[in-house]
């Protein structure tokens, strides 16, 4: 079994780092967009709340694979010259952002209304109150759910490698190795180990963040 890993180390390592890059970029998109959508969801304006709600319902209820087809094949057919990397990271990031927004919204509700009212009475605008008081506490409250979403993102990234985008991620490279060697069990065992390394690392990081920053009630 070990000979499959040693003989094809370059393919496995290349696919592993492509998966890391894919997840890191997508996670950045998810956090930025998810935070903005969460702010819309809790805004005092009903119109803004509806905009945030529409985003969440659209991206949370369309399968990721369908989003990949729309963002790549659909846009290219419509004349937009988009490459596989942009389509893959954007789709995964925007898809996960809907779940990040809902997690942050639940964290915002855990912040006492008295703090918000006190901030507004001191002259802070609503945007400043969110940025300085509400969102920092909300992030600390939802560290564990965000960790779960990150792990789900790592697993969802495998869909990109086997879709029409065919990015050379860990699963894509494992399929190439399997096609060359016909050693199916051994090849996908090492692919699974690679994903376990990623998810295990995220788990350790999240536990450390929880010990340091999580709010315990």
Automatic annotation (TrEMBL):
Transmembrane stretches in the record are 20-40, 52-70, 82-101, 187-209
* Transmembrane among keywords: yes
The cellular location(s) given in this protein's UniProt record come to:
Cell membrane
Keywords of the record: Amino-acid transport, Cell membrane, Membrane, Transmembrane, Transmembrane helix, Transport
Instruction: Say which family it is in.
Output: Belongs to the binding-protein-dependent transport system permease family.
Q: Which residues form a coiled coil?
A: none
Q: Which residues form the ABC transmembrane type-1 domain?
A: 16-206
Question: Is the keyword Cell membrane assigned to this protein?
Answer: yes
One GO MF term, please?
transmembrane transporter activity
Q: What is the protein named?
A: Amino acid ABC transporter permease
Q: Name one GO cellular component term.
A: ATP-binding cassette (ABC) transporter complex
Q: Name where it mostly resides.
A: membrane
A Pfam family that this protein carries is BPD_transp_1
Q: How does it sit in the membrane?
A: Multi-pass membrane protein
Q: Which InterPro entries match?
A: AA_ABC_transptr_permease_3TM (IPR010065), ArtM/GltK/GlnP/TcyL/YhdX-like (IPR043429), MetI-like (IPR000515), MetI-like_sf (IPR035906)
Q: Give the GO terms filed under biological process for this record.
A: amino acid transport
């Amino acid at each position: 079994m070990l000979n499959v890993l040693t003989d094809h180390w370059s393919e496995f390592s290349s696919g592993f780092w492509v998966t890391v890059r894919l997840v890191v970029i997508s996670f950045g998109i998810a956090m930025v967009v998810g935070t903005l959508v969460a702010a819309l969801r809790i805004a005092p304006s009903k119109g803004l709340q509806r905009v945030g709600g529409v985003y969440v319902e659209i991206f949370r209820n369309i399968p990721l694979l369908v989003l990949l087809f729309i963002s790549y094949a659909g846009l290219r057919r419509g004349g937009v010259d988009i490459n596989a990397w942009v389509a893959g990271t954007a789709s995964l990031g925007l898809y996960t952002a809907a779940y990040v927004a809902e997690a942050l919204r639940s964290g915002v509700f855990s912040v006492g209304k008295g703090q918000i009212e006190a901030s507004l009475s001191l002259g802070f605008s609503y945007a400043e109150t969110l940025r300085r008081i509400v969102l920092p506490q909300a992030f600390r409250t939802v560290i564990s759910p965000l960790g779960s979403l990150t792990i789900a993102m790592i697993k969802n990234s495998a869909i990109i490698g086997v879709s029409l985008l065919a990015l050379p991620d860990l699963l894509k490279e494992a399929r190439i190795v399997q096609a060359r060697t016909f050693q199916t069990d051994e090849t996908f065992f090492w692919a699974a180990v690679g994903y376990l390394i990623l998810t295990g690392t995220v788990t350790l990081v999240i536990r450390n963040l929880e010990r340091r920053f999580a709010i315990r009630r």
